[in-house]
Write a structure and sequence with these properties.
Blueprint (H helix, E strand, L loop, with lengths): L7 E9 L6 E7 L5 E6 L4 E6 L2 E2 L14 E9 L5 E8 L3 E8 L2 E8 L2 H19 L14 E10 L5 E7 L5 E7 L2 E6 L2 E3 L1 H6 L20
Parallel strand pairs: 1-5, 10-14
Antiparallel strand pairs: 1-2, 2-9, 3-4, 4-7, 6-7, 8-9, 10-11, 12-13
């Protein structure tokens, strides 16, 4: 019996909607595969992680109209399992809806409504007042020249969303990436973490939305 090979991404297409008011990213693979889609704000990007490898004939998608999507490309993530990340640079903030049918994933993008933007700005201000002014986990900086991670706070937002806030002793350079379909990896460069913080992050605070937050210290 011949073993079935790993899933392959056969095509990635960008389709403009009527009057260029929406765009669709359609990703088709050789079979149904796990995936995760999320949006990053700075810079504006939509990222889709797929547990499949690009087929040999797969080419970089073409963007004809840049009103919503400026550019799109894919890259292989050398992890276990090996996966592919599709990254769409956005021209403006968007709402997105993911539809799955057979072997295809369709992500419909449309401009965020202005009234919703204002509502979320007010909500964000309240969150800052509640979530950032008094983090639940906070420590004073120690005697070190390195940037220090002082606190980690979690807040459940409306519409099924959530936010994790990491407090540092000074402005930090960081990278946010997807480790696998269910895990986001935040790397903070040239930073150390207060030892007590690694022991007192209580997973029970994050039930139903986040399974756990795990601090990892990587030696230089």
């Amino acid at each position: 019996m011949v073993e079935e090979g790993p899933a392959k991404i056969e095509s990635i297409n960008v389709i403009s909607g009527p009057h260029d008011k929406e765009s669709t990213i359609e990703i088709t693979s050789s079979k149904q595969v796990p995936y995760a889609a999320f949006k990053l704000i700075q810079p504006l990007r939509l990222i889709v992680g797929i547990n499949a490898l690009p087929a040999k004939r797969l080419t970089r998608p073409v963007v004809i109209n840049g009103r919503i999507i400026k550019d799109i490309h894919f890259e292989i993530i050398d992890d276990k399992p090996v996966s592919t990340r599709v990254i769409a640079a956005l021209s403006q903030d968007v709402e997105y809806n993911v539809q799955e049918k057979d072997r295809s994933i369709k992500i419909l993008l449309s401009p965020k409504k202005p009234d919703e933007k204002r509502e979320k700005q007010v909500l964000a201000a309240r969150e800052v007042e509640i979530g950032l002014k008094e983090p639940r986990l906070f420590f004073s900086p120690g005697k070190t020249k390195l940037n220090q991670i002082l606190g980690a706070d979690f807040l459940i937002l409306p519409k099924g969303k959530s936010r994790v806030t990491v407090t540092t002793s000074k402005k930090a350079e960081y990278e946010l990436s997807r480790k696998n379909t269910l895990t986001l990896l935040l790397k903070i460069k040239e930073a150390t973490i207060i030892p007590e913080l690694t022991r007192y992050i209580d997973s029970s605070r994050f039930e139903r939305v986040v399974s756990r937050i795990t601090p990892i210290v990587k030696a230089a």
